[in-house]
Structures are given as structure tokens and as C-alpha cells.
Amino acid sequence: MASKRKEISVDERNIIIKFWQEGKSNQEIGCLVGRSHCSIYTVIKNFKSTGIITSKARSGRPPKLTVRESRSILSAVKKNPRLTALSIAQDVQERFAKNISVVTARRILRWAGFHSRVA
Questions:
Q1: Rounded to an integer, what distance in angstroms lies between the CA atom of residue 77 and that of residue 84?
Q2: How many helices (H) and strands (E) does the chain have?
Q3: How far apart, in whole angstroms, are the C-alpha atoms of residue 104 and residue 81?
Q4: How much is the CA Rg of the chain, to the nearest whole Å?
Q5: Which of 91, 110, 108 is nearest to 99 (CA)?
Q6: Reported pTM
Q7: Where does the record place a coiled coil (predicted)?
Q8: Which of 1, 37, 103, 106 is a plausible cystine mate for 30, CB 3.0–4.6 Å?
């Protein structure tokens, strides 16, 4: 489940680092900025170790298909709504030389709002 907390903005991090360099405590900075002293500590710790204020890049597997390839799948489904996920996966194999599973094809369709419902 995704976190419900918001990431501290770069502007807010700059303010935190500025107060820290002026010699204010984590509790004082937390009161001034409206964040917990634990959040302030984390921002300062990351700044000390990396020297950078921005967030680190998120890890994760890159998407199998590009945005352009996904759009071409969706346009094909709009032209022919009776296409099966298997035929879409085979079409992607032929056109883009990429192996995608049937589940990936279904996921792209569901993400775009296409569901296998009969009117």
C-alpha cells in the first residue's frame, strides 16, 4: 500500500538546511517549518551524507513498452474492440519485436479504461 505522506519539497528542504546552518536545533526547525523533528533529522542526515538536497531516484523495473507502443495498442483496440489480449501480445511481438505477456496486454487495456464487459 502506498504511503499517505507527502514528500518534503525542495524549497522546504532548502529552508531546513538554511536553519540548520544557522545553528537551530531540529525541534526549533520542526516548529518553524511545521514538520516533525524526525523528518528534519532525515533531511539533514541525507544532506550531510550526499551534499544534495533533492531526493534520490526511485528504484523499480522500467516499463516493458514505451508510451508510443502503448498508444499504438490502444488505437488498435479502439479500431477493433474485439481484439483479444493474446492477439494484442502477438501483434506487439510482430510489430515491435518485444515479447509481452497476455497479462501485460490486459494491464495496459485496464489502465486505459478498457474492461472485458459486454453491453
A1: 9
A2: 6, 0
A3: 17
A4: 23
A5: 91
A6: 0.54
A7: none
A8: 37
Reading the block at residue 79, the C-alpha cell is 479500431
- Residue-averaged pLDDT of the chain: 90
Q: Which three cell numbers stand for residue 12?
A: 522546504
Q: State the cell numbers at 69.
A: 507502443
Q: Where are the alpha helices (DSSP H) in 2-84?
A: 10-21, 26-33, 37-50, 67-79
The residue to which cell 496486454 is assigned: 105
Under the banding of pLDDT at 50, 70 and 90, the label for residue 3 is: low
Straight-line distance from the first to the last Cα atom of the chain, in angstroms, rounded to the nearest whole number: 33
Higher pLDDT, 66 or 117: 66
Cell reading at 93? 511481438
83: left (phi over 0), alpha (psi -120 to 50) or beta: beta
